[in-house]
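Schema walkthrough. Field components (list of strings):
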Amino acid sequence: MNNSKKYSLEVRVWIEESDGPFLGIGKIWLLENIQKTGSITNAAKEMKMAYRQAWQLVEEMNQRAESPLVEKLLGGKGGGGAKLTKAGEKAITVFYEIEKRIKDFALKETQNLKF
Amino acid sequence: MNNSKKYSLEVRVWIEESDGPFLGIGKIWLLENIQKTGSITNAAKEMKMAYRQAWQLVEEMNQRAESPLVEKLLGGKGGGGAKLTKAGEKAITVFYEIEKRIKDFALKETQNLKF
DNA sequence: TATCAGTATTCATTTTAAAACATACTGAAA
DNA sequence: TTTCAGTATGTTTTAAAATGAATACTGATA
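Field assembly_structure (string):
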């Protein structure tokens, strides 16, 4: 008879670029919230993160991607805003596709862990 | 013609237990160093980590595993030491097996990422 | 041409985790 | 019964990261 502790396997996936971690689930959530709210400010509020932090993440993503993932609009009606580029939308779907395939595999591979 | 930025997929794997993350590559390295050096003190030095921290990780592992992964020896010749239990040795091999299977799969699945 | 909300940027403050320090405790062996 | 190196544990420093506050900038539109 065995102890009944439950263990499960967790997998984290991210895209690495020459200067280090480039795109993981955190930035993907940020992209999704920008898409949903139309601005970095509101996306940040949604996620309860500081605007400054969100802005820096967007800046970093845009500089390190082959082409910008977020288009920022300065001034004008409503002060401006931010929206995803085609590349930004693509990044979300590609990321989730890859993540899903790997997590499904991991789940299938690991049943009844014991430690 | 396309930009030549290189992207790669990174995967991190760890074992989760009811109270959160239980065993990842960091603790595995610690186990390996304990195995190699025969004490927590020397394992910590090897890894340039504080003894206190290493000791706490061992404590946590032992309490949350079904049975202890590290056997600690108090006092005596040389002040004591630490060695892996059978369960500790098993944990290392099982962890690496799982990790390898998943990383191999991830590598195979993802070629030519673009962002 | 004044307004307005969001972007852009700097600086001070808080939070956090990690490391460093200090000090008992343990027990085989000389 | 003293020595000794490693375990055990609390306290203090340090360093890094996140947050918060403050301020200037932008430009369509009323």
